[in-house]
Specification:
By secondary structure, this protein is an alpha/beta fold. The chain has a single domain, classed as Alpha-Beta Barrel (TIM Barrel), CATH 3.20.20. It is built from 12 helices and 8 strands. It has an 8-stranded mixed sheet with strand order 6-5-4-3-2-1-7-8. It is globular, with a radius of gyration of 19 Å. The chain starts with 12 loop residues before the first helix and ends in a 12-residue tail after the last helix.
Length: about 325
């Protein structure tokens, strides 16, 4: 079901929830901690909502990672830690942190841009991932070089394919659950992703046929109308049209399943947010009522359960069509 454009809703996400008699968003449980390790990246993709790149200096310090580890020891609910960036691997204490999280018995997902494997000092990443049974979510916005290089930079497609071959040789992409390798598709324009399962079949067919590459699943993620992608939309004169698309495709079933209801996002500096997108918009947990919270102002991540979730117009990106999350579509 979708809201018709004729209803003339503005871009007030909470109003859309009320339109469908849905309650305001609250965190029901906490199962996932998503941590941004910094904005430093060896790429500068057009769609990047983090505005990451080679010249960014924001990066997590060892003491911040140690405090997160301490809080995880006091938190009963978190079972999955999702590491993102930038390129999370470029954090100086990345390998120590991954090792510590795995020692705690936590599942660890790393959002890898693939080409970071060819950065100096990172060529043994496939073996490091394998030895620590890290689950990988890797960016590959298309199976053709033209679309990938247009979104992520010249030569990125060829390096990404070579990185996937190295990961396959390390054991990733097989049926083994402990060496999970998923790919991520982001649209290259102002439109919603196609149906996830159908696109996954096409990816699998083409990558296997052309390059002999195997992977687990394809995750389709809607581009959020914030930061670098929002600037691109304005340059195209397509911002209003894209926002109207997201609003008009509002799906109440997706709204009921949004990832922020079971996730907390931690910034590279230790600040707390309801999701990674709110983090990039400097919207603290719960909208910042009573002041911003950090990892030093709480005693356990379990304290974040039953909290109100800060929302904004960008939330329509998570609830349009089949919905969108860091784990792919929602319905």
């Amino acid at each position: 079901m979708r809201v018709s454009a004729a209803t003339q809703l503005d871009w007030d996400f909470d109003a859309a929830l009320r339109q469908w008699s849905l309650p305001a968003l609250r965190r029901d449980v906490l199962t996932t901690l998503q941590i941004n390790l910094g904005k430093l990246c060896n790429q500068a993709c057009h769609h990047c909502h983090v505005e990451a790149g080679p010249n960014r200096t924001e990066i997590m310090e060892r003491g911040t990672a140690e405090r997160i580890d301490e809080l995880l020891g006091a938190s009963a609910g978190v079972g999955l830690v999702d590491l993102t960036g930038g390129a999370p691997e470029l954090m100086p204490s990345f390998r120590w942190f991954v090792g510590r999280l795995r020692e705690r018995g936590l599942r660890v997902v790393v959002r890898c841009n693939l080409t970071v494997i060819f950065v100096e000092g990172q060529t043994d990443l496939p073996e490091f991932y394998r030895d620590h049974q890290v689950e990988l979510v890797c960016s590959l916005p298309c199976y053709t070089p033209e679309n990938v290089d247009r979104q992520r930079g010249p030569g990125v497609f060829d390096e990404s394919i070579e990185a996937l071959r190295l990961l396959n040789r390390a054991g990733y992409g097989s049926a083994a659950d402990d060496l999970r390798l998923d790919l991520v598709y982001n649209p290259v324009g102002a439109f919603l992703p196609p149906q996830q399962d159908e696109l996954e079949d096409k990816y699998r067919e083409e990558l296997r046929r052309l390059f002999g590459i195997e992977f687990g699943h394809l995750l389709t993620i809607t581009n959020m109308p914030i930061k670098r992608f929002a600037e691109q939309l304005h340059r195209w004169g397509a911002y209003d049209r894209y926002m109207e698309l997201l609003r008009d495709r509002f799906n109440p079933a997706a709204a009921a399943a949004v990832m922020c209801r079971s996730l907390v996002s931690v910034g590279w500096d230790g600040s707390l947010y309801d999701c990674d997108f709110n983090q990039m918009l400097d919207m603290p947990v719960g909208g910042g009522r009573g002041g911003s919270e950090t990892i030093w102002s709480i005693d356990s991540f379990d304290q974040m359960v039953e909290r109100a979730i800060a929302t904004g117009a960008h939330c329509f990106g998570c609830t349009a069509g089949a919905g969108s999350s860091c784990g792919g579509d929602l319905v």
